[in-house]
Amino acid sequence: MLRIIITEDHDILREGLRSLLKHEESIQVVADAPNGRVLLDYLETTPVDVVLMDINMPVMNGIEATKIIAAEYKHVKVLILSMLDNVNYLNQLLRAGAYGYVLKNTGKDELIHAIHEVAAGNVYISAELKKKAIETKPADDVKLTKRELQVLELLAEGLTNKEIAEKIFLSKRTVETHRKNLIDKTHCKNTSALIKYAIVNGILKNVNIEKFADNV
Fold it and tell me: What are the structural domains of the chain?
């Protein structure tokens, strides 16, 4: 059972989320908090898998709290739940360390799916917001070769280095080199962060959005 904390400054929304999730057998709401400061106090003593986080809150907002969680509670995954369908906020939160971003108009099934995805260490972004992000202009200071883009697309589809090597007729070592170059050029820490970067900066324009959504 996944243990989650709801962090939302509006009482009626916190209560609504609790009510929405209380009969879900795979999820246990262990606490709720009105802001990031109270959330961090809970994290000191309460075992948690996922934090369901609003952005705009008093005392400490969701961006500040996410940065602290990413630095001090690396096992805790943050899923942003916001009414703001803004790519700039998505960018900030992913860079801060969030694993997911869903909109408050999402349905129950998608929310539960998103919670499980981020708990497993996968990135989950609402399709509506993901489409906006993919359509944004790529970062001007990152120049990728055609082969690097090809490898990036296959990484985003969930293929391993060995599977990519077999698919595009390269050695596994060559694929590993392309992957390392991608991480170095984008200044990302790992493959998950690399895919986040590609989403935010619209580098993967030619990837089928529906197929891509299944893997990030």
Answer: 2-126 (3.40.50.2300), 146-213 (1.10.10.10)
